[in-house]
Amino acid sequence: MYKRILVPLDGSKLAEQVLPYVRVMAKTCQVPIILLKAFDLIHPPSTDPSHAVYMDRLFNYYKGDAEEYLGHVKSSLSGLGVPIFIAAREGDSAVQIIAEAEREPGTLIAMATHGRSGIPRMVMGSVTNRVLHAATDPLLIVRATSEEDFNGQVDFKTIIVPVDGSALAEQVLLHAAHLAQLLGLAVTLLRVTPPIEKYQGSMGVTRIDESSGFQFDTYEGLIKEADERALAYLDGLEKDLYDLGVVSVTKRVVRGQADDAIVDLARQMPGNLVAMTTHGRSGIGRWVLGSVADGVVRRSGNPVFIIRSEEKSSAKNKAANRSDGDQNPVGAGTGSDTR
């Protein structure tokens, strides 16, 4: 599924905190690693021939400095049994990252966020944000911590997969199943239902699936159906994951704001990787995945794996028949946890 791993670096120790995860992914997937460092030169207009000579020397200096740094990082990754390449590119960091990723389909971008800035370093937080919003390739984003708190240990146990009932959100399932098989991980499916106040407009006039003409006399009745439909929906996804070769799947339905619920669950489960899509649909019972992904990346202390969803059917082409807004409710299955 992944043909290579692209690792943008800026020369800081904080940016290098992604490297332990790169080691695990590259060794498991047995794919090449591309270490990329961008440097940006200012080219003021000048007709003086000596200016061109000076800019050439400056370019060679920064390029050589970047290549020397990347060479040291390459040496630190030896022993993985995969090819490692270095690339020092002039230009805007985010532009260079996206351009390099687009050179070969199947690139996984792995990078840290909240690195330090300075000359010639890039502001990793802003760069990561721009890459997150512009890249079409999968991203593995690691939030850097202080150097004192960083221990370099990677101990994945579970992949948390938030879904919102849309086919777009389900596009991450193939990736989650692939990673679970490669890394020997369990999968936790998470469906976040809206807080009670979001249902107020439904009282007396609508069903949870937004169709009109069905009356709920109490919030409890409305919420009960919402939870039952959410669990029934997760039952279908659970079966899909087992069909894809995942050996352990649990289901969670949590009420609240989507990004809050995802981050809270991640903090309760050490050794997790959150895998989700960006740019899902919105509506009652659903959340806007773009903004949710942003919030999870900013606030989660755990790695986040993100793919950009495409306007097409889900991997199993079942979402239209299995939507949590249209499905007959069924009871909770084994391994479910509703709260």
Write the layout of secondary structure elements.
Elements: E1 4-9, H1 19-29, E2 33-39, H2 49-76, E3 84-90, H3 93-102, E4 107-113, H4 124-134, E5 139-143, E6 158-163, H5 167-170, H6 173-183, E7 186-193, H7 219-243, E8 249-255, H8 258-268, E9 272-278, H9 289-299, E10 304-308, H10 319-322, E11 336-338
Parallel strand pairs: 1-2, 1-4, 2-3, 4-5, 6-7, 6-9, 7-8, 8-11, 9-10
Antiparallel strand pairs: 5-10
Helix pairs in contact: 3-4, 8-9
Task: Report on this structure.
- The protein has an 11-stranded mixed β-sheet with strand order 3-2-1-4-5-10-9-6-7-8-11, sandwiched between helices.
- It is 37% helix and 20% strand.
- Helix 3 (93-102) runs parallel beside helix 4 and helix 8 runs parallel beside helix 9 (289-299).
- Strand 4, helix 4 and strand 5 (139-143) form a beta-alpha-beta unit.
- It has 10 helices and 11 strands.
- The protein has helices spanning 19-29, 49-76, 93-102, 124-134, 167-170, 173-183, 219-243, 258-268, 289-299, 319-322; strands spanning 4-9, 33-39, 84-90, 107-113, 139-143, 158-163, 186-193, 249-255, 272-278, 304-308, 336-338.
- The radius of gyration is 23 Å and the shape is elongated.
- The protein is α/β, with parallel strands linked by helices and 339 residues long.
